[in-house]
Every structure is written in structure tokens, then in C-alpha cells.
Amino acid sequence: MSITLKALKKSPWVFHVNTGACNNCDIEILDCLTPRFDIERFGIVLVGSIRHADVLLISGPVTKNTLPRLIRLYEQAPKPIKVIVVGACGCSCGIFRDGYNIVGPVDKYLPVDAYVPGCPPKPEAIIAGVVKVLNTLG
Amino acid sequence: MVKKVPIGPYHPILEEPEFFELHVEGERVVGIDITIGWSHRGIELLSEHKTWDQVPFLVERICGICSCSHPYAYVKAVEDLLGIEVPLRAQYLRAITAELERLHSHLLWTGLAGHFMGYNTVFMWTWKFREPVLDVLEAVTGNRNHYAMLKVGGVRRDIPQEEIPNVIKMLDELEKNNAMLTNAILDDPVIHARTKGVGVLPWDKCREYGALGPTARAGGYDIDARRDHPIDAYDKLDFNVILCENGDVFDKVVVRQLENFESIKIIRQALKAIEDTETGDIGVEVKEVPAGEGIGIYEAPRGEVLHYVRSDGGNMPIRHKVRAPSFNNILTNEYSVLGSTVADAGLITAAVDPCYSCTERMGFVDTRTGERKVLTEEELIKLSVEKTERIRKEISQGKRLRKS
């Protein structure tokens, strides 16, 4: 394992994008940071810029407005980047599948490493998703 | 020269997307452009292709934080169309779920406001106090968010008898914690300095912009749909409408904190009242929805939410209109942000408790040089945190008078 991957495994920095979700996945992701779950003790930190991130956490069905920005974000991300989709909407568009402004689930546009289904997934599930991705790193 | 700084369109603290473009003269804000519509999902049209019973699951996904208020307004609209009365137990259960939601929403916002000011202690504390509310919601409704509790004609689940003491215990603890938090906020000189007289939205402007909910009540505009248009059990419940006078960010914090006590009061009354009703009597069966139209109004944590439905006698609504409070409240930023500094702008635009998200950024146009620059929320929070630090230092050095 290269030293960068080893370092990544110890402290994956997460950047979170909402591509049109209803907020619930977002507040559950935020919940992971607050005292009950406190994932910061494992080195997982939400960062404000994609250029610092190792993991891209996406919630929500992709809307027409957010699609170009999502793709631009992925292009700007330092590689290798792991993409995790949180919530039923990001995995499959969920209840919004037939919406006229919805252009599809995230995996239609980006390679996805892990799906965390649920509406919204509980914080435990989100943490489990991140851990599973880290385990694939070796 | 037009200069843009493209940085990730997101900060972890914010939810639904919005775009503000601040026009600044040096540090002073002289104008603001607001662009919304980033997370438009076409819910009204989707709703017209779902049956009457499926729509509550759709409308609760309009906003994750108001996932009881939207279905509440919707089921009241359909019940208005049908002209039916739901059983008393269901009415109280609806009130309990809705008020629990208000508690968690207000605590969430107070935490975010603390974070904006650079007070992460407030953020961590409020979110810690919020967790038991979510636990109770999970025990009562089956899910932490998206409760799927309401249906046309009643509620979907009865509250388990053995769960009621737990709810009361949680309320007792929360009341203590909320009192501690409120006193801490009211006593803190730094919070006073950062929020008093900042982002003022006076009574007449509240009226002009049609501000709703805590945003309006902080400015003394007496509006609360729970009292003005009592639905279900709300006319049997005793609660006060909290009003402040100044309409600044401080008052918006105070209104929300004090409303938590009223919500706790309402839940206690409702829990007492359901003891007199029969277990399991939680809904009437609705077989057909006749042609007609109905309106449902409910006071969501952010203000009045209105749903309108029209039926042609079929199994789906032929028109469903949703009016959410954040739309009115976001537009009030146009007034309240004027004249403030850039460091305060993030706090002011967040004070109406809008739902932001990924594309949240602020654009700058310096009107003196014509220079254009895009600031991320991260930089804004940094500015805000720096200001708090400065004030804290000045207070400790005695440069500023401690406000009582």
C-alpha cells in the first residue's frame, strides 16, 4: 500500500454535496459529527473544499441545475477520490424518479464506490458505508 | 476586471441550495441578489400522479426538517375537501409529532447559528440535546426523520402506552437543558455583541415582505397559524405565541428558544389528554374523495405552510399547490442584510432559517472597483469567526462595555 493510501485510510476527509436532496440525509450526515456519534475521533472531517477531500459524499437525486456543478466538482477533486452516495434519492432517485427536473441517479454520471440506502439512512449506516469503502483500500 | 474564486459549492452546515450575490462597498453591503431553484424537483406535478394516500409520503420529502408540517397541511386540505373530523386521539398524536418536530428543528437552528458565530460549543450542545428528541420520534413514529405518521383521516401508528413515560422523562430533561441553553445565550456578552441590532427586520417590513413564523414574530408581527387558524386539537391546547420587538438576529434566537418551552408545554398537555381517549382509535377510513377543493394551513417551524388540493372525483388530486414559508422569509434578506458588514451577512441570511445546500455561495460585486469575486460559505464563516474572536478579545480587555 502506498503511503498516501495508508494516510488516507487513517483520516479520510469528506466533502459533502447536496444535489437536490430534501435535507434529511444532510442533517443525518451532520449528526455524525455531533457528540452522539462523533466521527471526528476517527479522523473523518467534513471539509469546505473539494480540493482537500478524499471522499465525495453525495445526497439527493441529480437535478438539471446541479448536474454541471456535480461534474465540475468531480473533475476538480484530487484523485483517487472515493464516491459514496447517501440516501435512496442518490442511489435510485427514489420517490422523485419521474420528476421532469431530475436527470437521473448519481451513478449515471459518476463512478460510485458505495451506496448507503435509506430514507434517510441512520448515522450508523452512513458510518458503516464510509468504513466499508475504507476497507476496500486494503 | 471580473475575478471569480471557484471553491466547492457547499459547506457541511447548510442544506437546501440558494445563491446570494452581495453588492458591497468595502465592508458594507449595499445590495443583494438572490437566486433560488437549485433543488427544484417538480413535486407539485409528481403529486398529481400519485393517489391521495401516496401523496403524504411525497410531501414529507419536500423538506426533511418539516417532514410532519407538509403532510399535516396536506391531510388537512384533503380533510377540508371531504369535510370529515378525525378521532380525538389522532388529533393529539398529530400535535405531539408536529411539536416534537418543532423542538428538533429549533434546536437544530440554534446550533447552526452558534456555528456561524464561531461558537462551536453551542452547536455541539444543542445537537446533543436534540438527539433524545429524535430518539423519542423514532420510538413514537418508527423513524428518526420522515415520520410517515400522518394519513388522510388520521395517523398511521398509535403511541405505545409504555413509551409515554419515556417521552415525559425526555421532556423534563430537555426543559432543563433548554433553560440552561437559553440563559447561556441571553447572558453571553459576545452573542449580544454579534447579534443585537444586526439584520433588523422591523414590523412594517415583515408585513411588506410577508414574513412568516419566527422571522416575523421576532419583529413583533403577531402571526401564528396554530392560533389564527386552529386545526385539530390546537384549539383545545393552551400555549402562548412568543413575540419580540426588535426583529434582529438576537430576537430570532430568543423567539425560537422560548418557543421550545411552548412546544414542551403542548406535548405535555397532549400526552395527558390522550389518556382519556381509547387506544387504537386513530383514524377514520376514507374510501372516496369527491370532486371539490380544499385548503390546509399549518404552522411549520419556519412559518405558515399552505396546501391546496383540487379533486375531480378520481383517485388522484388534479391540482396540488404548496406554499412554503422559506420562500417569503428568504426574500426578507433583501432588506435585513443592507448596511451590515460582510462578516454579519452569513449570519443574517441564515437567521431566517432557510434550507440551504450544495450550491450555497455568495458572490461579491465591489461597487467601487467593479471587481467580482465569489466567496464560499466557508470563507464567510471564517470572517464571522474572526469577528467573534475580536469582540471576545475587546471585551476581555475592557474596551467594550459589558452589556447587562
Protein traits:
heterodimer, A: 138 residues, alpha/beta, Rossmann fold, 5-stranded parallel sheet, two-stranded antiparallel sheet, 5 helices, 33% helix, B: 404 residues, alpha+beta, Cytochrome-c3 Hydrogenase, chain B, 3-stranded antiparallel sheet, 47% helix, disordered N terminus
State the name of the first-level CATH class of chain A. Alpha Beta
Number of strands of chain B: 9
Task: Identify the biggest protein-protein contact and residues per side.
Answer: A-B, 45 and 45 residues
Largest sheet of chain B: 4 strands, mixed
Helices and strands of chain B: which structural class?
alpha+beta
CATH topology-level fold name of chain A: Rossmann fold
How much is the radius of gyration of chain B in Å?
22 Å
What is the H-and-E element order of chain A? HEHEEEHEHEEH
- Work out the strand percent of chain B: 5-15%
Q: Domains counted in the coordinates of chain A: how many?
A: 1
- In CATH, the topology of chain B is named Cytochrome-c3 Hydrogenase, chain B
Number of strands of chain A: 7
Tally of helical runs of chain A: 5
CATH superfamily of chain B: Cytochrome-c3 Hydrogenase, chain B
Q: What is the CATH C level class of chain B, in words?
A: Mainly Alpha
Spatial arrangement of strands, main beta sheet of chain A: 2-1-3-5-7
Q: Looking at the chains present, what oligomeric state does this protein adopt? A: heterodimer
Outline type of chain A = globular
Which secondary structure elements does this structure contain, and how are they paired or packed?
The complex is a heterodimer of chains A (138) and B (404).
Chain A: H1 3-10, E1 13-18, H2 24-31, E2 45-46, E3 55-59, E4 62-63, H3 67-76, E5 82-86, H4 88-92, E6 102-104, E7 114-116, H5 123-136
Parallel strand pairs in A: 1-2, 1-3, 3-5, 5-7
Antiparallel strand pairs in A: 4-6
Chain B: E1 19-25, E2 28-35, H1 43-47, H2 55-59, H3 69-82, H4 88-117, H5 120-141, E3 150-151, E4 154-155, H6 164-187, H7 189-195, H8 203-209, H9 213-218, H10 225-228, H11 249-273, E5 292-300, E6 303-311, E7 319-323, H12 325-331, H13 333-336, H14 342-351, E8 361-366, E9 372-376, H15 377-396
Parallel strand pairs in B: 1-8
Antiparallel strand pairs in B: 1-2, 3-4, 5-6, 6-7, 8-9
Helix pairs in contact in B: 4-5, 4-11, 4-14, 5-6, 6-11, 7-15, 14-15
